[in-house]
């Protein structure tokens, strides 16, 4: 699953992969002249591992990340969602069953930051948004985070993929899963999921998080990979980050492609939104690809 494979030169967001093997790339998407209204998002809920009884069992495969080996599951979108030729159906399924290359970039960058003493995950409260396979969150558990909460749009992704991946990679010492971390799983749309995330003050809270009373509230580190592909969801994602991020020392690590052609999003579009708001400062800490392929980036966001 090298980040330098030839398929990175193609740009596939929607895939027709028959056997549902992990796709590292995106394709051009033709926007229709008019789009039907999206269905109502699924309800926000916490997925509790002991209560999960999914009949869909993933096939475990190793992923080598420059010497670090993690296990990831492979499941069929047909078995889980009755979808055979698409990685994304807006409003119904947001691609969480695929392993996108940004997730691998993010794990590698976090590891590099830890090894260079620019980051410590020990004792941190971590939230992975749009987690899918959850490899960055799993890495945070292995590095000693005190709490890691995984969020995905679809509860089915958490049940059939994220939770099995956590179980496969972490020693199980209690019902909470994981070594010493509090590991929990939350499904829901970015516009509403903050209502069920623990340790957040959401009532009458200043979205800019400038109040001293919010200093101990929220997550120390927010992780997200390939979450900024759709221009229509960028504002709600950014507002969620501001609600969830601990002030004043919280940090966001975001891995994404520079541009997602056809759907309008991308890391630069998201960073433009952040800079226009003026609450956070963004710094580019890693870049992958170039030349004829679409550049992939990892950004770090902090409060000013």
TrEMBL record:
Region labeled Disordered — which residues?
A: 1-37
Q: Does the keyword Transferase apply?
A: yes
Q: Where, per UniProt, does this protein localize?
A: Cytoplasm; Nucleus
Name the SUPFAM superfamilies on file. Answer: S-adenosyl-L-methionine-dependent methyltransferases (SSF53335)
| Domain of life of the native organism | Eukaryota
Please state the protein's primary subcellular location: cytoplasm
Q: Name one GO biological process term.
A: methylation
Tell me which species this is from: Deinandra increscens subsp. villosa
* Family statement: Belongs to the methyltransferase superfamily. METTL18 family.
The name on file for this protein is protein-histidine N-methyltransferase
Q: Which InterPro entries match?
A: Methyltransf_16, SAM-dependent_MTases_sf
> Where does this protein have compositionally biased stretches of type Polar residues?
1-17
Alphabetical keyword list: Cytoplasm, Methyltransferase, Nucleus, S-adenosyl-L-methionine, Transferase
PANTHER family recorded = HEPATOCELLULAR CARCINOMA-ASSOCIATED ANTIGEN, HISTIDINE PROTEIN METHYLTRANSFERASE 1 HOMOLOG
Q: Name one GO molecular function term.
A: protein-L-histidine N-tele-methyltransferase activity
Q: Its Enzyme Commission number? A: 2.1.1.85
Extract the Pfam families matched here: Methyltransf_16 (PF10294)
